[in-house]
Specification:
The chain is mostly helical and 167 residues long. Helices cover 61% and strands 0% of the residues. It contains seven helices and no strands. The chain has helices at 6-10, 14-25, 36-57, 67-101, 104-107, 128-131, 133-152. Helix 2 (14-25) runs antiparallel to helix 4. The protein is elongated, with a radius of gyration of 23 Å.
Length: 167
């Protein structure tokens, strides 16, 4: 699975699907991060970054040196890291799932344009993409839930499950 030729991904086997599931599951947004070390080292790192910026632009960023600024950043950092992890999970899930499923959109609906072969001749319960459909669905569902969490629900776009608020 090293090439980006769609035919290479069309007839994946169960080992390929296991590998894809394993890769996606390595990005686990549910892991709670221990930010103790970050909180200890952050003031030093922050001061170094601000000093570097001040040197580069020949300006003084007094407000950024304030303890309140550092405390604010430390407060929002856990949620920011959680969102970044969720976005990574969404991207990897959608990318890998699209690689192995997009080639099937025509093949499963219509006879082959070249030879006229029917989809039933290529797909049955033992075809890996069919056999593992539920596993792939679980990955897609999780990615969509993370998408809702990061981009829709946490931003207050939806008032409830049925009414969209345009703002």
């Amino acid at each position: 699975m090293l090439h980006l030729n769609s035919d290479d991904y069309l007839w994946v086997d169960n080992d390929d699907i296991d590998h894809i599931i394993e890769e996606i599951n390595q990005i686990n947004p549910e892991i709670k991060l221990d930010l103790e070390e970050f909180n200890e080292k952050f003031p030093t790192i922050w001061k170094s970054v601000i000093s570097h910026l001040e040197e580069k632009v020949q300006a003084n960023f007094q407000d950024l040196h304030k303890t309140e600024t550092m405390d604010t950043i430390k407060t929002f950092m856990p949620e920011a890291l959680s969102s970044i992890t969720k976005i990574s999970h969404i991207y990897v899930s959608m990318f890998l799932l699209s690689l192995i499923t997009s080639g099937h959109n025509q093949l499963t609906r219509y006879p082959c344009a070249c030879c006229g072969e029917l989809p039933e001749n290529n797909y049955n319960k033992d075809t890996p993409i069919v056999e593992r459909f539920n596993d792939l669905y679980i990955l897609l569902d999780r990615a969509i839930n993370y998408y809702d969490d990061v981009f829709l629900l946490s931003n207050g776009i939806f008032e409830d499950d049925t009414k969209l608020i345009l703002s």
